[in-house]
Amino acid sequence: MENKKLKVELGPDRSYEIIIACQNLKEFGAHLRSLQLGNSIFIITTPVINNLYGEQLTCGLKTAGFAPQDILLVEVPAGEQSKSVEQWLKLVEELYQFDQQLERQVVLLNFGGGVVGDLGGYVAASYRRGINYVQLPTTLLANVDSAVGGKVAVDFKEAKNLIGAFYQPRLVWVDLALLKSLDARQIISGLAEVIKYGVICDPELFVFVEEHYKAILALEIWALERIVVSSYAIKAQMVEADEWDNRGVRIKLNLGHTVGHAIEAAAGYAAYTHGEAVAVGMLCAAEIARGLGMLAKAELVRLEKLLVEVGLPVGVKGVSLEQIMDSLLHDKKFVRGRNRFVLPTGIGKVEIREGVSDKLIRQVIAGRLH
Ligand SMILES: NC(=O)c1ccc[n+]([C@@H]2O[C@H](COP(=O)([O-])OP(=O)(O)OC[C@H]3O[C@@H](n4cnc5c(N)ncnc54)[C@H](O)[C@@H]3O)[C@@H](O)[C@H]2O)c1
Questions:
Q1: Which residues approach ligand 1 with their CB closer than 6 A?
Q2: pLDDT (tens digit per residue) in 228-250
Q3: What is the arithmetic mean of pLDDT over 319-339?
Q4: Rounded-to-integer distance, Cα 322 and Cα 329, Å
């Protein structure tokens, strides 16, 4: 497959490319070098990704002319727990040590899923008031959503992404071949975000997933390419239109995330992946829309059917209604205590509604507790 290029247009200084291909990790070093983003590279990854692809990545960087002493790879433990202030500080200390050794301009490279991308992105945003960083995503979720758009953050106390920034990467480099080592659960989890784009604004993408989810789950490259290119084309457009998430465009990407984040938090970021929680969150949003007379039953049934078919959960176990309601109150999308939901009005259309009644929210969530 040829390199596919998308662009996030944010003016002369901050626009960046999204390069999508299969088995292009070997070309990454030369491309990075040509961008002249820095002369030394601080790579953040997890142990499993390092074992699988760390050498391939660092060898490619050396072949492209980066000196071995100018490359430092650090590992963070896998999992949401790494999106913490403690882990952020540890990375800043390591980056500071690395930075002190030579006359360097460090470029930070996030080699991992959404956790590494969000955490490393926040390190880049905060260190020296911002250094260049590149997203090299390795999960399906990060290949369709988290690596683009510059929302970077760590979690704090009960609240997800409470401490963060808008800080755009300088390049997003997708190698679809890296997905082959990802377990099925993570692939399915990433698919939740693709289905989300379909519900928000792309009925054709929704139909594509309905018709070809088996090919996607089997990691057939043509199918992966279609969903990654479509997803990132949508995300790029929304980020261009509403970079700071204050114009009512980007908020649509939060479909399913209000209840989804609350489920993740209530379950201690352990029982459910982000995508799984978003799947249940999307259904809750659809049921709220239905309760408000905004969505036809057939559309809700169609969404639930697809989620079940691809293997996503449509309900949650092991958390109580009160735990989820408590987590909801910490949601950033709640403005001065008033809730705000992205609600589907069909496959391909959403509306924003504020002040949904507690009664309806409770009723819908309670119906999803198994
Ligand atoms: N910034 C954004 O716009 C945005 C959008 C959506 C989600 N997110 C965030 O993304 C995070 C979830 O990201 P995720 O779903 O990618 O999970 P993740 O980053 O936790 O990765 C999942 C697991 O897969 C492993 N892994 C990653 N790549 C692999 C590969 N190629 N082969 C084998 N194993 C691999 C990781 O080590 C980890 O154990 C959440 O924190 C969520 O809040 C951010």
A1: 46, 48-49, 52, 78-80, 83, 112-116, 118, 138-139, 141-142, 145-146, 149, 151, 178-179, 181-182, 186, 189, 273-274
A2: 999 999 999 999 999 999 999 99
A3: 82
A4: 11
